[in-house]
Write a structure and sequence with these properties.
The chain is mainly α. The protein is built from 6 helices and no strands.
Length: 225
């Protein structure tokens, strides 16, 4: 009669062999739950929020850049216009006769007053400069805001001079009527003295404001790169 070999692997065998390792892991998984396989998608919400903030920051930077460039260009255009009158228009008219002076200035004023692009640039230079100063201050760039703010104040003085002196003189000249019928040319003397002097002042103030805006642009470039 044959006997079964020692260490039989029959199901009834109850020897002292250690249980298979995978059985222990299976029991642990049943108690604790099976772990998810593969890399876990951690940080996706944070990455999405960071991307949104980056996009928002880029848009904000573009806005603040536009707000500081636009008034710089507009103030520069105004400074150039006033300077052209200082060095060419007014001296050239002063060398001619009074009737030519009146006729030319009436046409100049009518052309400028009827130009919507000029009016928009003339006023928006101040409005955008103020907006730029406010934005820079809120972003914590106080030095840039200071330079832009001072430039805005200087340009505001230019507007006040224009509305209180130059425009009233322009209106008085327009009411004088046709130069061919004019007999009293005292208005010409007002232009040669008061109008010319205030225009030089406007040129100087605009040039100073432009210089301040240029300095602000340099600081802005350093702060945002």
């Amino acid at each position: 009669m044959s006997h079964p070999p020692t260490g039989s692997y029959s199901p009834q065998h109850t020897g002292n062999f250690p249980p298979p390792q995978h059985n222990q892991q299976y029991q642990a998984y049943q108690q604790q739950g099976f772990p998810q396989q593969g890399p876990q998608p951690q940080g996706f919400p944070q990455a999405g929020a960071a991307g949104a903030r980056a996009a928002s920051g880029a848009g904000s930077t573009k806005l603040s850049t536009a707000l500081i460039i636009v008034p710089t260009v507009l103030i520069g255009l105004m400074a150039g216009l006033f300077f052209a009158f200082d060095v060419s228009v007014m001296p050239g008219l002063a060398d001619g006769d009074n009737r030519t002076y009146v006729t030319a200035m009436q046409h100049f004023n009518a052309s400028i007053d009827g130009n919507g692009l000029f009016g928009m640039a003339f006023v928006c230079a101040l409005l955008v400069a103020v907006a730029s100063a406010v934005v820079e201050l809120r972003k914590g760039r106080k030095q840039i805001a200071l330079w832009v703010g001072i430039a805005a104040v200087l340009y505001f003085i230019v507007l006040m001079i224009t509305f209180s002196v130059n425009i009233p003189l322009n209106n008085e000249l327009a009411r004088a009527g046709s130069a061919a019928k004019l007999t009293d040319f005292s208005i010409v003397e007002k232009f040669k003295t008061t109008w010319v002097t205030t225009n030089i002042l406007r040129t100087l103030l605009c040039t100073a404001a432009l210089t301040l805006m240029a300095r602000a642009l340099v600081l802005y470039g350093r702060a945002t790169r």
